[in-house]
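Input/output pair, single chain:
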Amino acid sequence: MDGTRIAGPMRIETARGFTPLGAWSYSTWRPPQLDGLVDHVWAYEGPSIHRRKRVFPNGRVELLLNFGDRYRVLEGGDPAICRSAWIGGPQTGPMVIEQPAQQQVLGVRLRPAGARAIVACPLHELTGLSVDLADVVGQAAGELLERCHAAASLAHRFRLVAEWISRCFLRAHGIDDAVAWAVAQLDASGGTVPIAALRERTGLSKAQLVQAFRDEVGLPPKLYGRVVRFHQTLALLQSAGAGRLTDVALDARFYDQPHMNAEFRALGGLTPREFLALRHPVGDGSTAGDGPSA
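Output:
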């Protein structure tokens, strides 16, 4: 990666909608300069459609900057009020958050290499936790939040965050090559590549591969594969709707629908049909309402 300036046009996609409480917008950007580090950058502004939100595991680390009222973790994490800038570590189950009535928030979904560029400690130390960004990067957290808050446009905010991550990456030691390759294989296969095949190709023993994944990804490889498949299934349901759940299960490479249902309960705390009833109008299925909409 050359330098830290993010130049060129930005392909920001924005969806807009209306509720009885007002208008909302949801924007996403996939910075090509940070391919391999960042899944996407996103922002939401407007009223909360659901005051309680269920957040599902996706195998990633989430960096969040909040410019409005605070959020509060209710279930599945530290029972604390989320501050203005924080990092959510990899999840092994669902988390329920109480959202403010009005939101103005920016998030960055970090791939393992991007997360390791920011977080100096082994990622398993953040698994299942939401921690203040200042506890991870010091005063740089406040500086980033202040600059983004003063930005004249959403595009400018996105660019500032991307450049900040780029600078972090240039100073970081980088993710282990064998783990990076194994993560790419699990992502490409929808989490279904045999772990034994990963061990054979990397030359790592079972214990070595598990420890390396816990340090660099935050989850052991088998659980990471399950989470990848679960997240891809959520995305299928989010975009395609119910259809035939048996077909969705096969497309997501489950043995059958009961197998898919069991994974939904284990990793999401609900059934596929319950997710469909609570899904948001936008997004990739990483979150859903946790109760009636406003």
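The mean pLDDT is 92. The chain has eleven helices and twelve strands.
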